[in-house]
Amino acid sequence: MGLVHDNKRIETIAENIVEGEAVKGRSLWQDAMARFLQNKAAVGSLILLAAILVFTQIGPYFAQWSNEEIDWSRMADVAELGKPSIENGHYFGLDDLGRDLYSRTIEGTLTSFMVGIVGAFVAVVIGTLYGAISGFIGGRVDNIMMRIVDILIAVPSMFVIILLMVIFERSLFMLFVGIGLFSWLDMSRIVRGQTLALKHKEFIEAAHAAGVGWFVIVVRHIMPNLMGVVVVYATLLVPGMIMAESFISFLGLGVQEPNTSLGALISAGAGTILYDQLWQLAIPLTFFLTIVISLFFIGDGLRDALDPKDR
Amino acid sequence: MLSYIFRRLLIAVPTLLILMIISFYLMQLAPGGPFTSERPLPPQVLANIEAKYGLDQPLHMQMVNYIVGIVTQFDFGPSYQYKDRSVNDIIAQGFPVTLTYGTISFVIASLIGISLGVLAAIRHNTWLDYVAVGATFSAQALPNFVMAPILIYVFTLKLGLLPGGGWNGGQWQYLIMPVIALSTSFFASIARITRSSMLEVLNSNFIRTARAKGLSERAIIWRHAMKPTLMPVVSYLGPAFVGMITGSVVIDMYFSTGGIGRFYVNSALNRDYAVMLGLTILYGGLTVMFNLLTDVIYAWLDPKIRY
Amino acid sequence: MKLTSKSVLGALLASSILMSPALAAGNHPVTGEALADDQTFTYWELDERSSIDPQVSEDVSGAAFVRDLFEGLYNQDADGNLVPAGALSHSVNEAGDVYTFNLRPESKWSNGDPVTAHDFVYAWQRLVDPELASPYSWFMHVMNVKNGDAIVSGDMAPEELGVRAIDDLTLEVTLEAPTHYFALTTVHGSTFPVHRATVEAHGAEWTKPENIVVNGAYILTEHVPSERTTRERNTMYWNNENTILDKVVTLVINDENVALTRYFAGELDQTGVPAGQYPKMKAEYPDQAHSNPRLCNYYYTFNMTDTTNPAFKDVRVRQALSLAVDRSIITDAVLQGGQFQAYTFTPALTAGFVTPDVPIASMTQAERDAKAMELMAEAGYGSDNPLSFSMLYNTSEGHKKIAVAMSQMWKQKLGAEVELANQEWKTFLETRGNQDFELARGAWCGDYNEASTFLDLLGSSSGYNDGKYSNARVDELLAMSKTSDNTQPLYTEIEQIVSEEVPVIPVYHYTGVMMLNPALKGWPFNNVEQNWYSKDLYKVAE
Questions:
Q1: Which terminus of chain A, N or C, has fewer Cβ atoms within 10 Å?
Q2: Closest-CA distance of chain A to residue C394, Å
Q3: The dihedral of CA A96, A97, A98, A102: what is its sign?
Q4: B67, B24 contact by CB (below 8 A)
């Protein structure tokens, strides 16, 4: 089939060019955003996560009990009297101590959300930069940087956390700092591995040849290509942080009573399955699972959207 | 490559040394000591005990004595908490346990994870993909401290099929539940990373070229896509390994296996310095070895990588 | 335990030689019940004990081992009374400071050597020897044996301890001063004899199954650290023919819910009951769930020094806080294990103790609450000026529940803002020991069954008085009680002063709750010190 000349169109374009109107270009990020919005599962998950966040803010207005108040009349027999019920105001039932699980779940979700996001954010930012630089520069510098990571991974993190908690008193902020301190290490190794593979690719060689400085190459060329792996690992990190926090609390070092976290609630719920109090496990676990699943779809969506090869 | 490996092994020694020194001083900073107890010891008794263990010496002397003891006699010192045993005893008895169920869990998690991930990627957006991803969700919803009591409840109490704990020299009945509990959350992450990585690789130019050349799907996957896919997976295996060691603490607690994971946590809480240091060196050594292994595997997977 | 072929062979030989099936089946000689064929008792340990060396053991689980593997001068029967064991009898001199014990001639070590008074001398000297640096060497101070303190501080040699063997079967103990409860201390594991040659030959390894030599009813045959330990019948024990249980197995399980699950699966004969689950267990398994009084208390101590919260210097605030605690909720709704509400520091069931009437005990909770609010208002605290303080406890599910409940009571009734601080064990001890707290949790179990073991803590010179409470009259009364014949009035006065000044808030007195296989008989439920001996237990046929 031969080329059909659409003279009309060509004239229009010619006119526009002559008048000096350039076609407005779209930036890469706008491209990515458009692609992301087309992914129904990802958008749906984003809405779901947002809904959960909104729930944590609005939910307390419907709560008839606070997160720390003990229901004295029901605490003695939680297995029987503590089941979820609309009438007595304990929508999610009671925890093992007789406190309202609805309010506690709300608080726990918010806390765990923050722990997960902050931890993952710190990991992504620091870990990616560190790993990319190490992998890209290579040689002796890479060796030293990675050996430092080796040491930090092997240092008994528990002592560090104990120390942090003791020196700075118990605070949620210190917990974040403690978790953040260790979350970036794994990410840096993964990023470094990917960087090692990327840096020999032709387009990087081209950038070299063009005289681009190494730091710019790392930030502008390597990092976007790492996004896939980083995003996926970050979506795995969030639940990982939540669980790590619960382990720390389990040792007495994390979130302090009466504050709670999803991890703490799940951990407590797991201890009572023998006593027919399954809602104490099922409800926080559902919230946790919802966050995990949403993050998965968002991660998939992000990865598809940001993948430079799709352009 | 051999000289690279040799250089890495050489540098492992100062790495471990620095690790030891940092950990040692870190431990001293935490409040309380091995002999802080509910019945505080009369000062004289405390002084006797500290003299006996050499804890009254200046810190750097303690550090030196410790290192000398290891290097000359391979003696990692006594346990302050379990007074009838030495650190060597504890490691000799507990490490094989952790190594056994840890390795099995690791291998199973990797095999299942990678297979599931590949399957989901090549059948992207089909029911197989959804099932595989769904399986990973279920697995992630069951972290080891939730899985362990549930497993015991179902298999020991309700079904009476498996012993509820113990090790008994590593007979298979005692291995099943610990391995299931430990490998579950990891196969989920491994599967996800594999799937995501393979999806990216399958979308790339050189795979498009291979398809255009008319290669069979199988050849494409096994001969061309596999190696680049595995790069991030191999990177993740390092942290997964470390994570499994931390996870083994929970396994030891619920299944009474006698592995060293529990000792690691306990020694921190009990301020059992010698045990803590000994295990830190052990873990540190393992981490260094493992990272070396993954670096070697990188080079094999991607010939362009040179050290 | 390393599985070298030598040790496996050794263990096999030991168990085959020592297995005596004499009483494996048949009937109980006294009660006539039909006995089970398999006389094995498997019980639960939360954390592995630190040691089974009698002079080094420092925890409850270790003490259970020591009682089975070794034998001291006296044991306790099921009601907690002294019965002859290694000693047949003793006499006391006029002044009351020299005890002479006549030892049992037929006592033997598991390698055939006879047990002599020299073994006791060696063990007691070992307890205070600075070289061993035993964490329990302070017990000699409780026993009040002559020169004990001086030896511990290194001023005298261990040989100077006030204990000597007059001959192989006569042991003479000299005390610093007459101590009326001295005989009771001889049931404690730290006073049990050890086989000198074995200890000197193997050093720290002497307690391993391949080395150990014992004089108790059982000998250690297997030890897999943090997993299981097994002890089996010692045929050389002088009373072996009356021992019915052949084997006792200890399983270490770090989670009490898992332990309970495994109990129901039949893997354990005995386990604990998690807080709050007792009523359900009692209702569903009435013949398996048991709750028995124990010689321990549970309290919160105020920091009575200058570093404390200024509000606590006002006795009205302390009284108000103690009044506002509804102890019945703690015992009946939180713990639910039959625990006793505590208004005095000493448990009611302590031998020879009569709980004095203190005002707080006879009020109703409504009256207490009203009085508490009144006192707080007097002290100047209210909704416009809420009392704010922190309470410290060590990490544990049970302690957390109680602390949360107490803090809620104070919040609802008195408007107090309470910060809950929990620390892991060592940090907690360090913090409390440095008076770095405002209100901290405490608990104490008696070393012997007499009130002074508790009340001594309230003396200003006590090393365990972390709140640093100091009252001259209390100190005076404590000193007097050491030599007095009629201690009750003195103890009553101490408790009354304490109830007035409230340096501590007594919360409850312990009960031991456990699940026990109904086929296991002979358990000493009435012994408040819960000193149980495997040789007194047996299993009936089901």
A1: N
A2: 8
A3: negative
A4: no
B81: chain C residues, CB-CB within 8 Å: 50
Q: In this complex, do A70 and C404 lie within 8 Å of one another by their Cβ atoms?
A: yes
Average pLDDT per 10 consecutive residues for chain C, totaling 542 residues = 48 48 68 90 90 90 94 92 94 92 95 94 93 84 89 89 94 91 92 95 92 95 90 94 94 89 93 86 93 92 91 92 93 87 92 89 92 92 88 86 92 90 80 89 89 90 85 90 85 93 94 93 91 94 84
Which burial class, exposed, middle or buried, applies to B60 when counting CB atoms under 10 A from its CB (0-12, 13-18, 19+)? exposed
Number of residue pairs across A and C with CB atoms under 8 Å?
59
Q: How far apart are CA C220 and CA C208, in angstroms?
A: 8
Given a contact cutoff of 8 angstroms between Cβ atoms, the answer to whether A175 and A115 are in contact is yes
Instruction: Determine how many CB atoms are found less than 10 A away from the CB of residue B115.
Output: 15
Cα(A234)–Cα(C451) distance, integer angstroms: 60
CB count within 10 Å of CB A300 equals: 22
Q: Which amino acid is at C205?
A: E
Provide the β-strand partners of residue C444. C297
Strands C388-394 and C439-445: parallel
- Between CA A195 and CA C341 the distance in angstroms is 66
B56, B67 contact by CB (below 8 A): no
Distance in Å, alpha carbon of A63 to nearest chain C alpha carbon: 18
Q: Record the tokens describing residue A182, joined without a space.
A: 């260790």
Residue C338, sorted as left (phi over 0), alpha (psi -120 to 50) or beta, turns out to be: left
3-state secondary structure of C496: helix
Length of chain C: 542
B/e letters for A6-28, b = 16+ CB within 10 Å, e = fewer, are eeeeeeeeeeeeeeeeeeeeeee
Query: Residue C224: which of B149, B277, B174 has the closest Cα?
Result: B174
Q: How many residues does chain B have?
A: 307
